[in-house]
Amino acid sequence: MQKFFNRELSWIEFNARVLSESLRNDVPLLERLNFLSITESNFDEFFQVRVASLKRQNTPESKSILKKISERTRQLIKLEYSTLMNMILPELKDEGIEYIKPSNYTPTQKAFCEKYFKHDIFPLLTPLRTDTEFFPRIGNLNLNAAFLLERKEGIGTTKNALSTKDDEIVALVQIPGTVQRILWIPSAGNKKQFALLDDIICMCGASLFPGYSAKETLVFKIARDADLAVDEEAGQQFIQAMEEVLVKRQSSFTVRMEYNSTSEKILEVLKSKLKLTDDDLYEIDGIIDPSSLSELQNIENSEMFKYPTWRNFNSNVLPEEGSYWNTLRQRDVLLNVPYESYDPVVKFISQAAHDKNVLAIKMTLYRTGNNSPIVESLKEAAQNGKQVTAFVELKARFDEKRNISWAEELEQAGVTVIYGIVNLKVHAKICLVIRKESDGIRRYAHIGTGNYNPKTALIYQDLSVFTSNHDIVSDATLFFNVISGYSAIQTMHHLYMAPVSLKAKILELIQREIQQSSKEKPGHIIAKMNSLCHPEIIEALYEASKAGVKIDLNIRGICTLIPGIKRLSDNINVVSVIDRYLEHSRIFYFQNGGQEEIYLASADWMERNLDKRIELMIPITDRNVFKSIRKILDMYFKDNCRSHVLLKNGKWRANIPTKRNKAYRVQEELYKHYKRHREVKKSLSNAEFIVRRKN
Fold first, then answer.
1. How many CA atoms lie within 13 A of 587 on its CB side?
2. Distance CA 207, CA 201 (A)
3. Peptide bond preceding 499: is omega within 30 degrees of 0, i.e. cis?
4. CA-to-CA distance for 597 and 61, rounded, in angstroms?
5. What number of CA atoms fall less than 13 Å from residue 168's CA on the CB side?
6. What are the tens digits of pLDDT across the range 121-147?
């Protein structure tokens, strides 16, 4: 009996759910285009990491999985580009925004594009010969134009290894990423028409090759292996070792090539020189890489084609003016972004940086984004004489270069920077502030499920807690001592850390639910996370299901657990929500015989998180915070507008409203919930007491 879905194929089905949002007529047009862009970006990363890893394994099993990946991915890519070319672009045209192919340029438009090429593009281009000993290096994920050139009559011929005939050669030109891909061209009436940079280069590019004519062109993009390991034993040379890995990514082996179908001859040359098999080749019927069409998001009146604006609201608990310390001494505070503003996190760290009574700040940093106000506050704190320690994870994939840069800035400002831990990624999300107060030293912590990144906090749904709870902040202190390398691993009684105690705690909680479950009072586990694929956890959930425990799982991405198997997993329900915000929080609920417990964590139930990363899980002890999270968790299982149910055959069935079950869209309901709370607080703050006075 099959007990696990394949991880890679499960991920592909997640991307299929993302793609399905682009097919919905009730999703605004430019948002549908955005879902196409996300689908393409997801596939790029998947091939660079997961497919590359499978290729290097080179075993019969990995080859079998690669074959299935190729087959299913082709189906989805065909749907992706059919959606773009046959639905979204025609609908944009109906709205007066039209993509024009070179064959349809008017004489005025053609002249405009030729002039633009000559003055603005030609100087940027570097034509690369391929009839040399070494094939030119093609950058990872860059768009390129290839030309099949034929020497003009009267000019001598040259025989070379890359010629398709003695008088034909292939040349390459990288399409500049520094120039917008979309060019608005002269249009009649109220229409807005645009050309693409790659089309213009293909049309005019022959001028790069004097003495040759361009017989055929082909536009393509390759994805390279990015699953390259850094030398963990590099010690003080670790940053240099990481930089070397970033360089290697640009010339590692190719795992996928996307191309248009305009030249079989050029395709054969590229296939041969890049050592690609047919399974690595993905022919695109349309515009390659819809993610670069995101420039359309900035067109005039674009709000007509986007989601209605959902503003985020200030916390109802934290004061809008003044410091947070008095509030946090009295109670824990929950933050649910992006429904609530991320400003309190930024303000918390900024206040700590400028408060004369704050002695030290310690925090973990995984992905912070560009121009981070949090990084600036840490620099200012160090310059203000505070002891600041930042645990920077340089191995945060695809953010390594940015992290190296601002880690060096922090060091120059006087921050003590610790560059991760050998063989483990620091993925925990925690900030600890130590403050001198009238009654002694007091500590404040912020612990959450998401990165310290104000930009992604606008689109990622995450939960976090501010607390001064003595038990929690004491464990937080031990945690920082452990990961700084100056302390042996110590037992923490309230925070649970991977890879030390977190997995064992989850297994213990599941086992406790089994022991307390009965036919009269069955146990109940509810969990929300990004991915579930840890075999030990899944086996434990199967045992719980067999014992009658009701298990509700909300899994955004990968799920290798198979629900609905008789006498194994028939008590397990798995749903997934895909909507305008990316669901990123990790919430774990255990009924515990009526003494309910809820935990937040930075970790998914995956082997990489529980066995190979530094992660944290925090119990929710504040009753108000507990009630809020419990309500939020329940709401996710009511969604019948943007949710899917996992079936035992591996397919996902979309939930739809019925006459009995009215439409319920969880993200919209959460937005309305926080909006109502804010309006109530605003009305109370505006209330006035009218005092009666005797004349």
1. 29
2. 10
3. yes
4. 41
5. 13
6. 999 999 998 877 788 889 899 999 999
Q: CA distances (Å), 292 to each of 289, 297, 515, in order?
A: 6, 11, 54
Query: What tens digit of pLDDT does each residue of 606-662 get?
Result: 999 999 999 999 999 999 999 999 999 999 999 999 999 999 999 999 999 988 889
Q: Which of 677, 680, 606 is nearest to 336 (CA)?
A: 677
Q: Pick from 288, 308, 284, 304: which is nearest to 296 by CA?
A: 304
Work out the number of other CB atoms within 10 angstroms of the CB of residue 499. 17
Stretches in the chain below the pLDDT threshold 70: 154-167, 230-239, 242, 245, 486-488, 685-695
Q: Are 613 and 498 in contact (CB under 8 A)?
A: yes
In the block, residue with structure tokens 């030990």? 536
168-174/128-129 β-pairing: antiparallel
CA pair distance 88, 21, nearest whole angstrom: 12
Distance CA 589, CA 600 (A): 9
If we measure between CA atoms, which residue out of 293, 199, 246, 283 comes closest to residue 398? 246
CA proximity to 248, closest of 226, 270, 222: 226
pTM above 0.85, yes or no: yes
Query: If we measure between CA atoms, which residue out of 595, 584, 545 comes closest to residue 565?
Result: 545
Q: Is residue 493 annotated as part of the catalytic site, yes or no?
A: no
Burial class (CB in 10 A: 0-12, 13-18, 19+), 659: exposed
Coarse DSSP helix, strand, coil percentages of the chain, rounded to the nearest 5 percent: 40, 25, 35
What is the pairing mode between strands 143-151 and 168-174?
antiparallel
Alpha-carbon span 267 to 369, nearest angstrom: 38
Burial 507-541 (b: 16+ CB within 10 A, else e): bebbebbbebbeeeebbbbbbbbbbbbbebbbebb
Q: Catalytic residue among 119, 354, 427, 493, which?
A: 427
Q: What span, in angstroms and rounded, lies between the C-alpha atoms of 237 and 251?
A: 22
With tokens 């840490």, the residue in question is: 378
Eight-state DSSP code of residue 165: S
Query: Whats the size of the chain, residue-wise?
Result: 695
Q: Per the structure block, which two tokens stand in for 89?
A: 């672009």
Nearest Cα to 360, choosing from 500, 480, 209?
Answer: 480
Which class for 7: exposed (0-12), middle (13-18), buried (19 or more C-beta within 10 A)? middle
